[in-house]
Amino acid sequence: MEFQTVVFYLFGAIAVAAALGVILVRNPVHAALCLVLVFFSSAAIWLLLEAEFLAITLVLVYVGAVMVLFLFVVMMLDINVDRLREGFWSNLPLGLLVAAVLVVEMLLVLTGDVFRQASSPPALPTDASNTESIGRVLYTLYSYPFELAAMILLVAMVAAVSLTLRKRKDVRYLDPAEQVKVKAADRLRVISMPAEKE
Amino acid sequence: MEFERPDFSLAAAEIFVAVMALVVMVTGTFLRRISRELGYALAQLTVIGAAFITVFSVDDPTVRYTFGTMYVSDWLGQVLKLFIYLSVFASLLYGRLYLIERRLEKAEYYVLMLLSMLGAMILVSANNLLVLYLGLEMMTLALYALVAFDRDNGLRSEAAIKYFVLGAISSGLLLYGMSMIYGATGSLDLGVVGQAVSLGAGDELVFKFGLAFLVAGIAFKFGVVPFHMWVADVYHGAPTPVTLLISSAPKLAAFALAVRLLVGGFFGLAETWQPMLMLLAVASIVLGNLAAIAQSNIKRMLAYSGISHMGFVLLGLLAGVTDGGHQQVFNAYSSALFYAVSYALMSLASFGMVLLLARTGFEAEHIDDFKGLNRRSPWFAAMMMLVMFSMAGIPFFLGFFAKFAVLEAVVSAGHTWLAVLAVIMSVIGAYYYLRVVKVMYFDEPMDRTALIASSETRVLLSANALTLAVAGLMPQGLMAVCGYAVLTSF
After folding, report:
1. Do A159 and B138 touch (CB under 8 A)?
2. Contact B145/A144, CB-based, under 8 Å?
3. Residues B124-163 pLDDT 10s
4. What is the ipTM of this complex?
5. What's the CA gap between B490 and B477, in Å, rounded?
6. What are phi and psi of A119, to 5 degrees?
7. CA–CA separation, B10 and B8 (whole Å)
8. Nearest residue on chain B to A142, alpha-carbon basis
9. In whole angstroms, how far apart are CA A164 and each of A161, B108, B114, B240?
10. Nearest Cβ partner of A151 from B3, B71, B138?
11. Which of B117, B141, B187 is most worth mutating to test chain A (most A CB atoms within 10 A of its CB)?
């Protein structure tokens, strides 16, 4: 067996095992961590396909941002695991039926003509960089949609801030800027008083 | 593909609005203490400035492209943009007092308003599937936030969640259709897609499969039956100035989406998408008019009436191609454009009236709130009567000519039964419009509070309503503009 094939099966096996872990482990935090492992293995498989940019983005965005956020939510929500598991056996037949239909459908699609490729695509030359070529078109041909995506992120930011930022009036707090600017005269006032005698 | 430096001057209006949205945001953050009026003034200046830029760039009716071929500058886009500016302008002006009274007047409101307008502008001038989608998302994301802007009100949040979830589903449908088209043609450019479709290059089954998803996505954005579930709840739940905006600018943008995708991209398969639109149009005209009768809330009534009006727009779009002949194309599409634009004008005036009657702590959402309006303000009762007559399609108001143009196109395309059905349903629909007129003139007023409105609002609202009557007497001007826009753009 070629080295690449070995690596593919290794990461494929890890991905499948981790995916099973996501649905089988009891603890939701462990399930989320298993999902992180699935993403890592998929990223490795993408590296094998010479799509290193996608692989890095998957790790950065999904592992670095989405899953961390997800873990936060899971930890904050305090989910009662036992109640989620109620009715597992009674729902099993329906779940199995849906899974069977899905498998049949995927088999039909994958064995059909649409996805049959005449030959595997030629390997890229060793000095070709996926990241560089994406960068080249992203900032030239696709600069307009790229800028639009940036504006959409701005919309999301403005919306999120305007919908969630609240000024609480019942909290007493000190403004550091005001504190720094304070002068001795604001704190202490020397007043001259006539001396008093007993 | 070689990269050319894009001609930024064609997209000057978009760039101006984007920059001004940022200016409003920054001044709103740092100069809040100086002036509360600043955000409003800057937003209105932006809309007027964008209108000037667009007007001065329309002297040349040729179709021009920039950013590769992603941005198209043509008369269709310019006409739609001008009416989108008008909608935003009216929403800001009519809604100003409403916002101040409810303490919603913040810089973010204006930023989101301008960004939503920017999204609509980008969508209207898009010539690429990716840009169409991004423009649509920018517009609707800002609208979701605007619906929820009064965040302590449960009704608003509920409407925003419904709008958001259903809007996300419809975007998903649209994207799924686009990915099919991309898979079949290998291009996101609508010109290339159009050529591939008409030459029959690529798998026709994949084209039709993608087309079905695209039509569903477009129908969602139009809010036509059976994709109308969100319309009444969102119109009812949103703050009235936002409802006013949702009922006008996004409908024009949805029209652009339909025309760019179906006529620009899928003209070769017109015989396939026309029956789909026919089903949607018939269902909307029937259900919209019947459901509107049962409403006691005027915002919900106008929502259902909007559904039936959008059905009419679809009627115009489906009358283009008959038996492979292209003679009808020009009349049909220009009648649909005319209808969309007229509906926007009528919708602005009708929600403007709802806003006029609203005051602090009182929404004027019920038809009963219009009772005896004649006693309180004979002038605005007459204006509301003009709007209702025009919406009902009573001759000789603008709405009549809009319906007339569409029905003429439908009859000459050979669908006489469709025209007959549309007329019957319009007559049934006239009932609920005339009911509003009846309560204004023949019922005793429930409260006799004087109407509070700024003089600008009074002037613009009167002008808006009178336009419906004057343009009804002289519809040739607007019709000629619509016809010219369609003629030069395709």
Report:
1. no
2. no
3. 999 999 999 999 999 999 999 999 998 888 899 999 999 9
4. 0.91
5. 21
6. -150, 155
7. 5
8. B67
9. 5, 12, 20, 22
10. B138
11. B141
